[in-house]
Amino acid sequence: MADNEITTDEQHDESSPVSDTSRETLLSAAFVKLADTLVDDFDIVDLLHTLVDECRRILNIEAAGLMLANQDEQLELVASTSEEAELVEIMQINAGAGPCVDAYTGGDAVAVADIAAEQEHWPAFSSAALALGFHAVYATPMKLRGRVIGTLNLLSTSVGVLEERDANAARALADAATIAILQERLLHETTIVTEQLNHALESRIFIEQAKGALAQTFSVSMDEAFQLLRNYARRNNLRLQVVAAGIADRSIAAAELATPA
């Protein structure tokens, strides 16, 4: 393998339709993955990326993103099924004024069957989403016992409402992730919970910088660069933020992230 040749063999093909039987199996497996995080120490960033990846893989959607509220109660993008600039921009616009904001402030799911019909309500979000071919969106709050900490957002290229079973599954996955973040033992320890959320938000900054460096080094897309980070972190039992910081301060050489032949 050439010095800067990389592979992302730990990825899987998510383009094929999922049968009803396979869907239920995958959904059960997703809950097991989320349940595995209910331990003293887990990588919250990897958890949230797992959540959006599983949503795209299982549900009838083309993209998913997850926002968490910062200390100023403003939503920030933490995880997305694609790290490419166009989709990230849509998610960020949504975080400023879009269905996810309504879901966060109202505490209830917001379903938009036809984004074009809502252009007056969310002009910037609607224009950006339609430009990339998205026509419907479903946003569900991440909440537990009345406390809303963020939103899960699903985008579809087809006009129409999300099927009820998919909407129920999305809410259940969002609830499971929320429980993982706000574990029972932390519910009354506000400082620790806040630190967990801040860690997820701050990690995004380090990861963005590392992705850019890897994309330039290996001449790959931002999606592929993120997959390199994630694969290396998992192989070495490290947090994503630790690996990203290592790339930034050069304590981890970029070449180490290339998967051996």
From TrEMBL:
Assigned keywords, A-Z: Kinase, Transcription, Transcription regulation, Transferase
Gene3D superfamilies reported in the protein's UniProt record: 3.30.450.40, Winged helix-like DNA-binding domain superfamily/Winged helix DNA-binding domain
Annotated segments matching region Disordered: 1-21
Molecular-function GO term, any one: kinase activity
Keyword Transcription applies: yes
Domain ANTAR as annotated: residue spans: 187-248
Keyword match Flavoprotein: no
Protein's recorded name: ANTAR domain-containing protein
Organism (species): Subtercola boreus
